[in-house]
Write a structure and sequence with these properties.
With 249 residues, the chain is mainly alpha-helical. The chain is built from 14 helices and three strands. The longest helix has 19 residues.
């Protein structure tokens, strides 16, 4: 009776290097993407993408036919982030950067790449700082990444004044801002928080900030009385009336 064969492995590094050399290489490629607002051309290989990612398997299915066809346009993903995704798919490793990791994370979530998503989340936690935290919070809220959202809120609670001065804070959506306004651990006085919220409102969310502040004010007032938060009943504490009555320009 023939004995079972033994699986032996060659060196991983040369194999990874060889695959990485195919990344965005027009030679032997059979698909071209036009990526990002800059409409950058990126070359790839359908069989490799399809076997590594269900998103690309559906995107590059038989309907495209054999050979190089019209470019596949992916305008919503920045070119550098898309190349990082391809690097991971080709070589099973990727070099992440602080300035672009959230874009790579977004692409990983949208393309269903769970392993890359987890690698990005680990990296974001390691490099989280005042300039990045609000942008990371927005991504966490948008895609329902609960642990990252909790980490970002905890960071902002510890560095509130600095975080409120960032552009990322001003660009938060109302659903991302709401958890911050619900927090009783922000290291900032009420007046500064009001000013920061007004600055956020000027970006274009007047109605949302009023509703968020109503909930925040009710929560604080109820907490002081030992009662649960009530969103639809009760009155605002007097110190918040002047803020809600001020015009937003």
């Amino acid at each position: 009776m023939e004995t079972p064969g033994l699986v032996v492995h060659g060196e991983a590094a040369p194999f990874s290097t060889a695959l990485r050399s195919l990344l965005n290489n027009p030679q032997y490629s059979d698909v071209c993407f036009v990526v990002g607002q800059e409409r950058r051309e990126v070359f790839a290989h359908r069989c490799l993408l399809a076997c590594r990612c269900n998103f690309f398997q559906r995107l590059l299915g038989p309907k495209l036919g054999p050979g190089m066809r019209s470019p596949v346009v992916l305008s919503s993903v920045p070119a550098d982030a898309f190349l990082a995704v391809l690097e991971f798919l080709y070589a099973n490793s990727v070099r992440l950067h602080r300035h672009s990791v959230l874009e790579v994370l977004t692409a990983a979530v949208e393309y269903g790449l769970e392993e890359l998503r987890e690698l990005c989340l680990e990296f974001v936690v390691k490099v989280l700082d005042v300039e990045l935290v609000c942008e990371a919070l927005q991504v966490a809220v948008t895609f329902g990444l609960g642990p990252l959202q909790e980490r970002c809120i905890a960071f902002i609670e510890a560095h509130t004044q600095e975080a409120l001065r960032t552009r990322g804070f001003l660009e938060l959506s109302a659903p991302a801002l709401l958890p911050l306004l619900r927090s009783d651990k922000l290291c900032v006085d009420e007046a500064e928080l009001v000013l920061a919220a007004r600055s956020w409102a000027r970006v274009g969310a007047v109605e949302q900030i009023v509703e968020a502040w109503k909930c925040h004010a009710l929560r604080r007032g109820d907490a002081a009385r030992g009662a649960p938060c009530r969103r639809r009943r009760g009155t605002l504490p007097r110190e918040h009336h002047c803020f809600l009555d001020l015009p937003f320009k």
